[in-house]
Amino acid sequence: MRIGLAVILVGLLVPTARAQHITTPPPATPYGGPIDLATAKRLMAAAEAEATRNRWTMAIVILDSTGHPVMMEKIDDTQYGSITAAEDKAHSALDFKRPTKAFEDLVAQGGVGLRTLSLRGASALEGGLPIIRDGRIIGAVGVSGGSSAQDGQVAKAAADAK
């Protein structure tokens, strides 16, 4: 009886511990000055190149550290809904100082992870990344139009080009 109760308790505690680990915010990264146009153009070119190389139609949005758009591009034949989805992902990454994949993963876990859906402005879809330079967030990129993994791949190409 005691062994059975112990197994049940461990089963209940392990998912909770895992969820707490994942939901712990990353180290505080301060906001920096806004991304400059030359850097935004370099990031946009890298994102567009990745999408084009894979023949993906996507919308790409780059925000500065104040949350204002610096650049937006919609590859031909991209669905219109991807424009606002990309902007939402960029805002989410900027406002919460983390990749939107973190929210997607929490929701996918179910249970307490579903609480993430109540966070105003948190996009639970991969494809949004903060842009960090010299330890400060200078902006964010949001990508939409493909699968979550494809959007994330294109966003990463942009963020890596900083």
Explain this structure.
This protein has 162 residues and is an alpha+beta fold. The chain has a single domain, classed as Beta-Lactamase, CATH 3.30.450.150. 48% of the residues lie in helices and 17% in strands. It has helices at 2-23, 37-53, 81-96, 101-109, 148-160, and strands at 59-64, 69-74, 128-133, 136-144. A hairpin with a 4-residue loop joins strand 1 (59-64) and strand 2 (69-74). Helix 2 (37-53) crosses helix 5. The model is unreliable at 3-25 (pLDDT under 50).
Percent helix, as a range, is 40-55%
Share of β-strand residues = 15-25%
Largest sheet: 4 strands, antiparallel
Structural class: alpha+beta
Give the helix tally. Answer: 5
Mean pLDDT: 88
Overall form? globular
What's the CATH superfamily, by name?
A: Haem-degrading domain
| Total strand segments | 4
Order of strands in the sheet with most strands? 2-1-4-3
Total domain units: 1
What gyration radius follows from the Cα positions, in whole Å? 18 Å
Low-pLDDT runs of 5+ residues are 3-25
CATH architecture: 2-Layer Sandwich
Would you give the CATH topology?
A: Beta-Lactamase
Q: How are helices and strands ordered from N to C?
A: HHEEHHEEH
Write a brief structural summary.
With 162 residues, the chain is α+β, with helices and mostly antiparallel strands. It is 48% helix and 17% strand.
Secondary structure layout:
Elements: H1 2-23, H2 37-53, E1 59-64, E2 69-74, H3 81-96, H4 101-109, E3 128-133, E4 136-144, H5 148-160
Antiparallel strand pairs: 1-2, 1-4, 3-4
Helix pairs in contact: 2-5
